[in-house]
UniProtKB/TrEMBL annotation:
It holds the Pfam family SRAP. Residues 228-251 are annotated as: Disordered. Keywords: Covalent protein-DNA linkage, DNA damage, DNA-binding, Hydrolase, Lyase, Protease. The keyword Protease applies. Belongs to the SOS response-associated peptidase family. This is Abasic site processing protein. The keyword DNA damage applies. It comes from the Bacteria. Its EC number is 3.4.-.-.
Amino acid sequence: MCGRYASFREDQAIADEFAVATVADDVRLLPPSWNVAPTDGVRMVVERADRATGEITRQLRVARWGLVPSWAKDPSIGSRMINARVETLADKPAFAKPLAARRALLPADGYYEWQAGPEPPAGSPRGRKAPKQPFWIHPQDGSVAALAGLYEFWRDPTRADDDPDRWLVSVTIVTRPATEAMAAIHDRQPLVLPPDAWSAWLDPAVGVDGARELLDVPPPPLRATPVSTGVNAVANNGPSLITPTGPDLTT
């Protein structure tokens, strides 16, 4: 799974990297984060029709992490839909429609995963387990990681038609089975798309079949660096969270 990541590059750097034409106003209100958690507002790259001209443009927008299907009774379901398994995207009602027409890229500097500790020796007190070791997993070359995502719109029935907050935009991160190297930490990892797949993934004219072809792309080389358990608490934030506490586990 992917339950925590970091996105601390400047908005303009992301806009330049992804050839974004329009940066939404609320994007500039999001501070950099070294500990992005579910239900947080996150930056996403999408291709949508411009409200003024109707022209399809590449935009940098804000969404809430945790997809809320359009048919949901309330947004609480989003906390259980922070990830979408690549194996069942087309089969799950919540993800099938976004896969066809509402795909996004979430710019990340890296993500976190926790490796379970060794089993306690025989005879140890019940319930006493070694703490999980967090790892900061990021592209080896320092480039941005473009996490494949799906987004959706949910209309709040309690709000008036003229309420600017009546629509909630939410997003989920697509995950895949871990590579052999990363499986030593966790059996899942986010789907990171290479630059030559970005345009096709974002293009709303590319249908389900075309999108599916992009789901098997190999991930870029990643580096897994052990970090402190400070990242475990969502209240903690800042560059110190990615300070190495030991040698890389794998590259």
